[in-house]
Design a protein that fits this description.
This protein is an alpha+beta fold. Helices cover about 30% and strands about 30% of the residues. The longest helix has 24 residues, at about 30-50.
Length: about 130
């Protein structure tokens, strides 16, 4: 077990963080597919490491962006628009996530930096709250 990133600790001294994996912009579907294929081994290695460390609470890759649907609601609660993706507003696309349980933000940032998605895109790290 790589102690630099910590073993999973079910004690009170851990905190959950969500790592939101944003794929970098691709100029074409072919380029996006080529990036994904080239990085598959890196993704598999990272997934094996983070799962093996015992810090993963949940993780999922998201289906292709073309399957997305966006819903907007007016101030009075009426659904007015449902649009099939892809959506042009964002240059980066949310591709998946991990929820991890680690001792602190520094440990979460270490895992985010190791994620292959940080090379061509970005990883947003946010604490998970239990306040709701």
């Amino acid at each position: 077990m790589d102690r630099a990133y910590g073993e999973h600790n079910t004690g009170a001294n851990t905190m959950k963080y969500m790592l939101l994996i944003n794929a970098g912009p691709a100029d074409s579907a072919e380029e996006a597919e080529a990036q994904a294929v080239c990085e598959f081994a890196d993704w598999q290695k990272f997934d094996d490491q983070i799962q093996g460390a015992g810090v993963v609470v949940a993780s999922h890759a998201l289906a292709d962006l073309t399957t997305a649907t966006k819903v907007r609601v007016t101030a009075d609660g009426e659904r007015v628009i449902t649009t099939d993706g892809p959506f042009a507003e964002a240059r980066e696309v949310l591709g998946g996530y991990y929820v991890i349980d680690v001792p602190d933000l520094d440990a979460a940032l270490d895992w985010a930096a190791r994620c292959p998605g940080a090379r061509d895109g970005s990883i947003v790290v946010r604490p998970v709250t239990d306040e709701y």
